[in-house]
Amino acid sequence: PTDQSLAGINVVITAGPTQEAIDPVRYISNHSSGKMGFSLANAALSMGANVTVIAGPVNLTLPTTIKRLNVKSAREMHQAALDSLPMTDIFIACAAVADYRAEEVHSEKMKKKADTDSITLTLVKNPDIIADVANASNRPFCVGFAAETNDVEAYALGKLKRKNLDLIAANDVSVGGQGFNSENNALTVFAKDKRFDIGLNNKKEVATQLLKIISQQYEMRS
Ligand code: C5P
């Protein structure tokens, strides 16, 4: 039988991209498929957890035994994450949150201008969801992701500290065939003074191994 070490534990996972509206028909987003986050949700469920997924717009389904909150923008995802805090033991931020959104969302479709070849869109910073969750007074055990192209360890450890996380799962997105929008992934997981390597495998297997590490470190939390 599978390891039931998360029995009764409330796990909240953000997954997928966010969509930042520009006007009623246009938005800013990214290529995140949500596969890694959804694989983590299934792995947590099979270990006995009560699982909630806060999902950006993705074309994936979940078992009905997983609670799903659908959101579009980073601000909606942020609100859903903060609302879930009283019921969260472990928070895993797998979503590819847009760093910026349009300062102004036009209520009507923007028209192409005949008299100019360029227009300017002003962007403002979105809230950092996991940093705000990790700094809440009732903070859960917090796990973040870091997609890096170089100096993976240094950047991941920097994010771990800056965002006040318990664990960070880093992947090298400069290596082909893994990570972003791919079927496979490989991760190096860092705690303040520990590291664990998860070799290249399909996202389901990588998710199972990552959840085992999370569950063990959660048990050992101080
Ligand atoms: O700083 P960076 O975007 O690389 O950090 C990635 C980690 O932070 C991921 O866990 C991601 O889900 C989370 N994040 C977030 N809210 C943001 C930006 C990133 O929760 N606005």
Describe this structure in words.
Keywords: Decarboxylase, Flavoprotein, FMN, Ligase, Lyase, Magnesium, Metal-binding, Multifunctional enzyme. This protein is an alpha/beta fold and 222 residues long. The chain has one domain: Rossmann fold (3-Layer(aba) Sandwich), CATH 3.40.50. 26% of the residues lie in helices and 29% in strands. The strands form three sheets. It has an eight-stranded mixed β-sheet, with helices on both faces. The mean pLDDT is 95. It binds cytidine-5'-monophosphate. Cytidine-5'-monophosphate is lined by residues 14, 74, 93-95, 97, 126, 128-130, 144-146, 159.
How would you summarize the topology of this molecule?
Layout: E1 10-15, E2 20-23, E3 26-28, H1 35-46, E4 50-55, E5 67-70, H2 74-84, E6 90-93, E7 100-102, E8 123-125, H3 129-134, E9 141-148, H4 152-162, E10 167-172, E11 184-191, E12 194-202, H5 203-219
Parallel strand pairs: 1-4, 1-6, 4-5, 6-9, 9-10
Antiparallel strand pairs: 2-3, 7-8, 10-11, 11-12
Helix pairs in contact: 1-5
This protein binds cytidine-5'-monophosphate (C5P).
